[in-house]
Each structure stands twice: as C-alpha cells, then as structure tokens.
Specification:
alpha/beta; Rossmann fold; 10 helices; 30% helix; 20% strand
Length: 297
C-alpha cells in the first residue's frame, strides 16, 4: 500500500495520522509479524494507538535505533511535536526514500516547517479526494498518492453496528486550536464551546439537550474541569465512551471546530456542525453537508 522499500521506519506522534497509518499496516501484515518490515517509532497519542493494535511485536524503537536499520521512512505530519520533522531531516541525510501522510485538510505547508526549515518527503500521501485536491494546489512538483482510509472504514462500520441516534444528544469533540480571534478572552476552543451553549436554540427548539464533551487525545488530563464546574446547563459532562465510534453512535448531533471527527460523523449520517463563532476564521473543512452554527437561524 505504501510502496516503500522494507524495512520501513514508521514515525508518528499525533493521533490522526497514526490511526490511518497503523490501520493500513495491520491490513498489509494480515496477521503476520512486523519484524523485518516495520520499525515503529511512536510518541504522544500514537503510542497508545500502536500498543493497543494487534500488531506484533509491539515494542517501540527510537529514531536513533530505527533509521540506521531502515530502507525507507513513513511518517505522520502532526503539529504537536517535532518528531516527524526530525525523522524527515535525518532520512534526507541518510538518502532514505520517504513518504508522509497528511490526515486532515488544513495547515498543509506548516506541517513540513519548523523554525523556517522546510523538509518535504519524496511522496505525500492523502486518503481522500478533497485532501488530494488541496495537496495538488499546495505542493506542485511533489509526488502525491491517495491511499484507502481503512481507519475511517472501520469507524463507519462500528458506528453503523452500534447505538442509534438519540434525539437531543450532542457529542462535542474537542481539539486544541493554535489560533485565536478578535475579542477572545480565553483559549479559542473554550470560546467555541461557549458559543455553542449560547446558541443551542439554533440546533432546535428543545430544553432537554444532553451534551457530552470528548477531549482530544493530546489534551492534558482535567483540562475542561474548571469550565464544566462553571456551567449551569443541567446535562453536560465529559464523554466516557470507549471509542470515538461508540461516542458518535447515540449522538443526534456532533459538534466541534475543525476536527476530523466532524467528517466521520457526517459520513455516518449524523448532523455535524462547526461551532467556530462569527469572529473566528472560517472553518476550513471542505466537506459539503457540514453545517456551521453561525449560519443557522
């Protein structure tokens, strides 16, 4: 699927790319061992995703251990760490062919830049036609390839097999935002949350909304405790579902800013709404069918 010489060093930090890459590796291995084929270098949220998969052996490498043994590099393109950027720099020095997966639809240039240093892979991988169109515009001359998103297929199957939507149930999928907007008095993700609560009537005329907040994998523990303690709304709490699919299943609405979960919910037939306020930059998710709270009346 990746068309890279083996063994391949697989370097991931953020959950988005790790989910897609690890799902593809599981398919490629088809129950066989990863030994001699993949050398996993995982940090941050990617560690749990790798260790909770059934890929064996589950033991992790460091960059210093993996790259000298590798014939190629496969990396994510997350923003919460320099790990993948460092891996691409070292791969260039070792003249290793490399591919990097973009798992989202925003900040394409910034994914490959740290402190003014731009390091592009030999091939950029995407997993849907919208991402391919954006990458084509953004990276002229760079080889691009679309691969199947087996993680998305698995999530959609799990949602379809799970609970049916409950009227009035809202799942809010949280994400740390790296930007703010005029008049913001707190971190942008909290402003977007406040905007939803102030405008619940735009989703429908009812007083019995049930709201569940699902933190991002990179959020620190208890990040939203103080915010929740200040709320007067009677039915709002953290989501304790074992998976994103289990959280989306019983939800009539799925809300968030620009998270991939909105796209998954939309494809699963749920009502998906971006809660970015009018003062915020426009939501950059390109999917048709996505609703925007500030446009609803």
């Amino acid at each position: 699927m990746f068309d890279l010489p083996l063994p391949t060093a697989v370097v991931c930090h953020d959950a988005g790319a790790a989910n897609v890459i690890i799902a593809a590796i599981r398919e490629e291995l088809a129950g066989a061992t990863a030994t001699g084929r993949f050398l996993p270098v995982m940090q941050g949220p990617a560690v749990h995703i790798w260790e909770s998969s059934d890929i064996r052996p589950a033991a992790l490498f460091t960059l210093e251990q993996a790259l000298p043994l590798a014939s190629s590099l496969l990396s994510g393109t997350g923003w919460a760490s320099d790990l993948e950027h460092e891996a691409r720099m070292r791969a260039q020095e070792l003249i290793l062919p490399s591919a990097a997966l973009i798992d989202h639809w925003v900040n394409y240039n910034a994914r490959f830049e740290r402190a003014g240093n731009i390091v592009l892979p030999d091939t950029i991988l995407v997993s849907d036609s919208d991402a391919l169109a954006i990458a084509t515009r953004t990276f002229p001359g760079v080889a691009l390839r679309q691969i199947p998103n087996l993680y998305l297929q698995r999530e959609l199957s799990a949602i379809a097999a799970g609970a049916s939507p409950v009227p009035g149930r809202i799942l809010y999928v949280l994400e740390p935002l790296r930007y703010s907007w005029p008049g913001a008095s707190q971190a942008a993700e909290f402003d977007a949350l406040d905007y939803l609560l102030a405008n619940l009537d735009r989703l429908g005329n009812r007083s019995d909304w049930s709201i569940r907040l699902r933190p991002h994998p990179s959020d620190p523990a208890r990040k939203y405790d103080k915010w929740l303690a200040k709320q007067q709304y009677p039915d709002i709490t953290l989501d304790n579902s074992p998976s994103l699919a289990a959280a989306i299943g019983p939800s009539e609405w799925v809300a968030g800013c620009e998270t991939t979960a909105l796209v998954i919910a939309l494809m699963a037939g749920r009502k998906a709404v971006s809660t970015l306020p009018p003062a915020a930059p426009l939501c950059r998710l390109p999917q048709t069918g996505l609703l925007h709270l500030h446009r609803l009346r």
